[in-house]
Amino acid sequence: MKLIFLTFLLSISIMANAQNNFKATQIKFERVEKAYNEKWGTLEKFVKAADFGNDFSMLINAYKAEGKLEVWLKSKSAKSYSLFRTYDFCAHSGTLGPKVIEGDGQTPEGFYFISVFNPMSNFHLSLGVNYPNAVDLARTGKNRKTGGDIYIHGNCVTVGCIPLTDEKIKEVYVLGVEARNNGQDKIPVNIYPFKMTNANMQKYSAQFRAQLSFWKTLQPGYLTFEKHKDMADVKEVKGKYVLR
């Protein structure tokens, strides 16, 4: 029993060190170090003032039609997220509707998570999302390329990504590093065509009729978050998003 307990403590220690090492590794890069020096002091004051603590988790909601990216945070003890910051897209690419194939210029729509922290991006700093997921692959079909390399990044140019400018990405990147360093392995990134109220569904589906069936699979996740301010349990089942 004593050996099992010691093994458990050792595993906890290793996990904690691995988490702390993420920030330590990131901050070795010049752009990340500069972002921390410029932004974290102010951000940390607001984080503490809002009682998010030192071990918050993070969620991102992005809305293409509105051109807004929201950063939501919650403390370890909280049951729901609270809105922390809202950023404007600096540029847009494509139209409403999901990304289908490589080269279509579309920004994806769906439920993703941050899969890459790139401290040496061609667009200052960037956070990659796990596009394509299983739903995207099913949509594109066999023998066709989905495309990839979808990021939230700096600068003000885009072909399918979400650019925020260098100054804004510094804040989002630093918050992401903090959340990841706190042990949040998957930071949700939910990309919606618009704020998916029933009124907006009726408005935009009149213009983009072909997207209505797909958008109906996104709306339950949006509505669940609006009601509970927590991430819905969304699964990828046979090429569709299903709320469990």
Note down, in words, how this protein is organized.
With 244 residues, the chain is α+β, with helices and mostly antiparallel strands. 39% of the residues lie in helices and 23% in strands. The chain is built from six helices and ten strands, in the order ααβββββαββαβααββ. It has helices at 2-26, 30-49, 134-140, 166-181, 198-207, 212-228, and strands at residues 57-63, 68-74, 82-88, 110-121, 124-129, 151-153, 162-163, 188-192, 234-237, 240-243. The chain is globular. Mean pLDDT is 93; it is low at 1-18.
Task: Summarize this entry quickly.
With 244 residues, the protein is of the alpha+beta class. It is 39% helix and 23% strand.
| Amino- and carboxy-terminal Cα gap | 38 Å
Order of strands across the widest beta sheet?
3-2-1-8-4-5-6-7
| Whole-angstrom Rg | 19 Å
- C-alpha geometry: globular
Q: What percentage of residues falls in helices of 4 or more residues?
A: 25-40%
Helix count from the secondary structure assignment: 6
Work out the number of β strands: 10
Uncertain residue ranges: 1-18
Please write the string of helix (H) and strand (E) elements: HHEEEEEHEEHEHHEE
Mean pLDDT comes to 93
Q: How many strands, what sense, and barrel or not for the largest sheet? A: 8 strands, mixed
| Class from helix and strand fractions | alpha+beta
